[in-house]
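Encode chain A's predicted structure.
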Amino acid sequence: MCLQGVCSPLSRQGRYAEAGEILRRFLDTRRKVLGPEHLDTLRTLLRLGSNLRDQERLGEAELLLRETLDISRRALGLESVGTIELMAALRETLARSRKFEESNALAIKQLAASDRVFGKHHPSTITSRIRYGDSLLNQGRLADAQPLLRGGLEAHRRVSGSQHIETAFALDNLAALLTETGNLDKSEALLREALPIFNANLRPDAPPLLRTTTSLADILTRQGKLDEAEPLARTAAAELARVEGKGTLSTQRARETLAQLLIARKDFAAAEAMLLESHHDVAESKPAGTRAERAAMKQLIALYEAWQAAEPGKDAQGQNLWRNKLEALGPQTQP
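Encoded structure for chain A:
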């Protein structure tokens, strides 16, 4: 059985727990047969760490990847392929945990090593640059992110091909940057280019496809194209909840996108129901006070503000209730 051939498709379908169980079985066998420092054992540990990250079990993922990186550096060397891959996986995990200072420093080291070992134009090096650019975007460093994301897309088009799935991911990343800078028309064009590539390479319910569908629905809602946006938003929200789970960040974002569309239609009651359900599911699945829970509360406050503006005197209590709950959380201590 091919580990990559089994687990990668499961992960792309959002079946992370199932993929994780298979990885653990492979890991036990490889430790016994090959030993704890063999490249295949270390790569299985890398995939398991990435799987934990995909399940948003960031603390466990970070610990496992740190331990595995230490073993790889000692057993394989500082610039082995396995060590470079582990550096990339740990960098992404740290960025997801918003440990940006450490993740940025690691990204610079990993990219320099990748340039030397793989070459600047290797697909792995290109993808690493794009992921670093995406991390910088999430930090609000748009000017620093732009050359990495633009250059990465151009490089994947040239090296991997215009219809390759990595090109679709690069299109999605650059679209996110353009959305942040207010270039909605250009962002829409990139997302429309990415979606057929995802459709050709993935199942209809694959999370990457559904996340890009969410992004397009968001752009269309902002542009006032509500009739086109609504079926996209409803599909993404329902399918991500089914495939990934109700408390994941992707599901939360899809539900918030649908809620914004409902607010634009002045269907405030339906938006309220959607956002209350989203907050409940996030609060149930994560420690109190996470960034995701705070975001869910802010969405509810914004809803009640919009509702009150449209219908003066409506739900002032709801707005105050959620403001008080948000303030009661105190300083953020969870990622």
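The radius of gyration is 21 Å.
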